[in-house]
Amino acid sequence: MITIETFTRILDLGGTFVFAISGALAAVDRRLDLFGILVLSFVAGNFGGITRDLLIGAVPPAALTDGRYLLVSVMAGLITFLAYAGIDRLRSPVLMFDAVG
Fold it and tell me: Residue 49: CB partners within 8 Å, gap ≥ 6?
């Protein structure tokens, strides 16, 4: 049996995933590297929740204290990078080391 807390957490992480994909797609459209895609993925996926938590007084925000939000955002960014930016971009050593750096 799923409790209401578990259900709301699943919905929150699902929304984070969808918004993170949206941010990652915007980064791919602007031809950013992997790091840029991951940053925009995290910002788009979590900034609304961080703002909500700060406005209602839930300090520190859940997205900064719970690692699941970071994991979901990074997964969405990686999926988007591999699906839309293509693995061909990683074949260039300069782009790969730029993303790692």
Answer: 12, 16, 61, 62, 63, 69
Q: What is the mean pLDDT of each run of 10 residues along the chain (101 residues)?
A: 91 91 90 92 93 92 92 94 70 57 51
The pTM assigned to this predicted structure is: 0.80
Are residues 83 and 28 in contact, defined by beta-carbon separation less than 8 angstroms? Answer: no
Which of 48, 71, 67, 51 lies closest to 59 in space, CA to CA? 51
Number of structural domains found in the chain? 1
Domain that holds residue 85: 4-100
